[in-house]
Structures are given as structure tokens and as C-alpha cells.
Write a structure and sequence with these properties.
single chain, about 210 residues, mainly alpha, 8 helices
Length: about 210
């Protein structure tokens, strides 16, 4: 749930501050490329492609580590994902010191690549952990499950609280990330997202095996 809120912050930073690109929600980048090819303005094919490539690279790196059995327990896999995310987001924070939107092209691409790498690593591990209704990034299926399984329509309503909380935390993260970005620039929302990921890392490491 903490990582879900972090997703909202990161996507607020990337969409609002880095030129209408997502670095956590890759579905958005695919449709943005389609929009741009169709003639829509204020969308960058290059930035969306950079985010997609970095995200895939991060997912491949995480897959290499977890599929080879180097990290076996769920707690350690989560610690690896969140710790890597925290490190990459901290690097982004350092790069962004003193910066507010709009950024120079080189700085924007640096932040796009680092944050998308972080999200790729995390999403590959979260997918492997396969916690029901906790994807931390995509809410389409969560909203579908919440509505389609509601007791009002004859559903069982299982894990409705978890689904609703995921939606609220993503919304809260996006709201907080946008306000912090527009008011104080990149450093504070990036630092906050890094601290949240670090907190998850600490909790995961402290869990007994």
C-alpha cells in the first residue's frame, strides 16, 4: 500500500514535471505514443519510448535476480525491489536539487530513465510476489474487481477494503506529488518517494525469515 502511494507521487512528478510522460504507468506511454503519432500536441514520442525502455530494463534486471534464485524469500525479494527503488529515487533527488519544471532536455531524460528503472524493478518483483489485488501501479483491474464483485450486484465483496484503499492511496500520492512539485520543485516529492520506498525496505528486512 505504501508503494501504491509512491506510484502516485512518481507519476505526478513525471506527467506534470517531465513533459506528459509516465514512468510508472506504462499503459499511458503506449497510448501517448499512439496519440502523438496521430498528431496530438504536447506529447513526446521520444520521452515515452525512453520511459518504456528504462522500465523494461529494470524489469529484466529484477527478473534476472529473482528467476535465478539469488533471492528466494518473499521478504528479501520485496526488500531488494524497494531498496533498489529507494536508491534510484535518491539518485533522482540528488540530480534534481534546485530544479523546477520545465527542465532541460538532458535532466528530464535522466529523471525519466532513473524513475522508470525503479518502477520496472519494483513491478517485476511485485508481479512475482502476486499478492491478491495489490499491484501497486495499475488500478484498472482493482476498480473492476471492486465494482464487479460488490455485494450490491450479487458479488462476494472479497478484499473490498484493500481495493478501495489502493485507489485512495494512489489518488493521495498523485495529489501530494503534484502539490509538492508545483510549490517546491522536484526535490521534495522525489525525496518523499525515496523515503517511502526506504521505509518498505527496512520493514521487509526486519521481517523474520
Amino acid at each position: 500500500m505504501v508503494l501504491t502511494a509512491t506510484t502516485g507521487i512518481v507519476d505526478a512528478i513525471s506527467f506534470v514535471g517531465l513533459g506528459h510522460v509516465f514512468t510508472a504507468n506504462m499503459t499511458g506511454n503506449v497510448v501517448f505514443i499512439g496519440f502523438a503519432l496521430g498528431g496530438a500536441h504536447e506529447l513526446s514520442i521520444q520521452r515515452s519510448l525512453a520511459a518504456l525502455a528504462a522500465f523494461a530494463t529494470g524489469a529484466m534486471a529484477a527478473g534476472y535476480v529473482t528467476n535465478r534464485g539469488a533471492i528466494r524469500t518473499p521478504e528479501r525479494q520485496l526488500a531488494f525491489a524497494a531498496g533498489t527503488e529507494a536508491a534510484l529515487l535518491l539518485m533522482s533527488t540528488v540530480i534534481a536539487v534546485g530544479q523546477s519544471p520545465p527542465l532541460s532536455s538532458s535532466l528530464a531524460y535522466a529523471l525519466i530513465v532513473l524513475t522508470a528503472l525503479a518502477m520496472g524493478v519494483r513491478n517485476a518483483v511485485i508481479r512475482k510476489l502476486a499478492v491478491a489485488d495489490v499491484t501497486t501501479t495499475v488500478l484498472t483491474l482493482t476498480i473492476t474487481g471492486l465494482a464487479g464483485d460488490a455485494p450490491l450486484v450479487g458479488g462476494h465483496g472479497a478484499r473490498s477494503g484493500r481495493k478501495a484503499l489502493s485507489i485512495l492511496l494512489m489518488l493521495a500520492g498523485a495529489l501530494i506529488g503534484t502539490v509538492l512539485l508545483l510549490k517546491w520543485g522536484f526535490v521534495i516529492p522525489l525525496a518523499l518517494s525515496a523515503l517511502l520506498a526506504l521505509g518498505v525496505t527496512v520493514v521487509a528486512v526486519r521481517r523474520p525469515l
